[in-house]
Amino acid sequence: MTSTASHPPAPAAASRPSAPPAVAVHNVHKAFRLPHQQYHTLKERVLHPFRSSTFDVLQAVDDVSFEIAEGEFFGIVGRNGSGKSTLLKCLAGIYDIDAGDLHVRGRLSPFIELGVGFNMDLTARDNVMINAIMLGLTRQQARARFDDIIAFAELEDFLDLKLKNYSSGMAVRLAFSVAIQVDAEVLLIDEVLAVGDAAFQDKCFKEFHRLKDEGRTILFVTHDMGAVQRFCDRAILIEKGRMVDLGDPATIARRYFELNFGHTVHRVAEERGGDRAAEIRDAWFESPGGERISEMAHGELCRVCMEVRFDEPIEDPVFGFTLRNDVGATIFAATTDLVHGPTGTFAAGETVVVRLEFRNWMVRSTYTVTPSIARAGVGADALDLRPDLAELVVHGGFFTGGVTNLPHAFEVSRA
Description:
This protein has about 425 residues and is α+β, with helices and mostly antiparallel strands. The protein has helices at about 40-45, 85-90, 125-135, 140-155, 170-180, 200-215, 225-230, 250-260, 335-340, and strands spanning about 1-5, 25-35, 55-70, 75-80, 100-105, 110, 185-190, 215-220, 235-240, 240-245, 280-285, 290-295, 295, 300-310, 315, 320-325, 330-335, 345, 350-360, 365-375, 380-385, 390-395.
């Protein structure tokens, strides 16, 4: 399979394998348009023909390049919304790319939406035959492999039960069992085993090893860093559609944890980033009485505040706070778009104070706050961000080894 769009010549990768790669991704871009105003019926479109047609652009995949050797077990990791599943769907041919080149050498089997072709009103017996043929097997091959498919799924006692009466786990087991019977050289696997029980997941991972031993190439999307280090030869880390790093699984897992636990709620390109249409002038912690504080006891009510001046008119800006501990791990983050909703329209020259109130269940340590403000929209790029602008020392409470000490109670009862 080859997908091509015109683009500037790609620079040569430093570590490309000498043999032709099984998968080659060069400078791939994929974006989605998200309209501000959506029509749900033809009547709405007729009654309101002049409504705004503006939209946000979500750059789901942004200039991603890598190559995968034949027989390699390759991990693709990233946080929710990072673009890794979109990239896999581009490779599978589900999405067309906007620019760049994709090359897959050999037959490809996507484990992305297992069971998409299942008919819930048919029995497992009928669905196995239909799906096996849809995935490329002949009728004779499907009949010959039928018993192996059912045995792997461990569903011998449910053959004549309609799929609408299956649990989600049973349906995934059946779909996976059918999919692995396809004679494909390249497998795309996108967290499809999340609902399977532990024993079945382990059974599937053993199957992955068998497929790898047969020389199959496997692309594996997951949040499980243990699985990445256990199975993958190499991996890439993706964030906001861009490739952050490519390397050995241990390095990528470490970068993934750094990204998750040291990340602020808005994205910036510089230490103090943003287009500066608004400026964060100050930030501080305060008591419920409104007094600025630099220390407080565990369990007390706390406020974190920022003062913002607008240098141009801004509509519904998103205010955010990120609290980090003394080792730089993010322990709490909040934005107004998740809780408060629209914040209003602010004129140039206007100054506002934003306060966030919470009960301080943090363990004794030193904490900093990073205030940020961003434009409304899916990108949430910062207008301004001030890393670690204010500091708070928390004392008291029990030290448990965790980052918080939440109110709790134990109950012990005899069975």
